[in-house]
Amino acid sequence: MRNIKIAPGEYYHILNRGMSKQLIFHDNVDRIRFLFLILYFQSPIILQNIGRPVRSFVKHSVFNIEEMKKGIVKSRFVELVSFCLMPNHFHLIVKEIEENGIARYMQRILNSYTKYYNTKYKKSGHLFQGPYKIVHIKNNEQLLHLSAYIHRNPREIKEWKNKEHEYPWSSYQDCIGKNRWDELFKHQIITEQFSNHNEYKDFIETSGTKLQLDEKYLLED
């Protein structure tokens, strides 16, 4: 039983990792699949053939379902604010819009991805290390520093150290350049607090020591 109250209008940090820290993303198709789920499962709209937009993205870097996007924006029960997909874990910042929105959102994502993963890799059972962890973001300072913490995460990957603003499986580039996902990704609560994209980038670059000191504060409720 969770000891956290999830309420509409509030923001939450959600994270989970693979069982025994195993990889949950082995290739770009896996990452694209999960990316599709966190973007398009923000509403109750059902898509029967997820493989089709995923294949479109593999070939053309677009999911190519614009009409569905409009419906999701109108009917969503959560808003996605930040994200980062790492080899064996993921981070999200999500705003609850409707009661039980986050619970519905995460159940759809994790069940769908686990089924896909187990089918593709001929596995069975649990993929993730228990229930997802969720932390209530209590104030604006925590929100800003948590967004920096998430966007700095790719520094853990050797080839992306100091290039995390180019990491394609994070929302960092969408916050400092063109937003690839339009209304499906709502970063404004964070980025509108900075006068321009470079100011937000500078904030992330200079947040290292502060984030190390505050890691417990950022990750635990």
Would you give an account of this structure?
The chain has helices at 28-40, 51-60, 66-75, 101-120, 140-152, 172-176, 188-191, 197-205, 208-219; strands spanning 11-17, 78-85, 89-96, 133-136. With 221 residues, it is of the alpha+beta class. A hairpin with a 3-residue loop joins β2 and β3. α1 (28-40) packs across α2 and α5 (140-152) packs across α9. The longest helix is centred in the middle third of the chain and has 20 residues, at 101-120. The model has no long low-confidence stretch (mean pLDDT 91).
Keyword list:
alpha+beta; 221 residues
Poorly predicted sequence stretches spanning 5 or more consecutive residues: none
Q: What structural category arises from helix and sheet content?
A: alpha+beta
The dominant shape is globular
Distance between the termini: 15 Å
Rounded Rg: 17 Å
Number of strands: 4
Q: Percent range for helical residues?
A: 40-55%
Tell me briefly what this model is.
The chain has 221 residues and is α+β, with helices and mostly antiparallel strands. The protein has helices at 28-40, 51-60, 66-75, 101-120, 140-152, 172-176, 188-191, 197-205, 208-219, and strands spanning 11-17, 78-85, 89-96, 133-136.
Secondary structure blueprint with pairings:
Elements: E1 11-17, H1 28-40, H2 51-60, H3 66-75, E2 78-85, E3 89-96, H4 101-120, E4 133-136, H5 140-152, H6 172-176, H7 188-191, H8 197-205, H9 208-219
Antiparallel strand pairs: 1-3, 1-4, 2-3
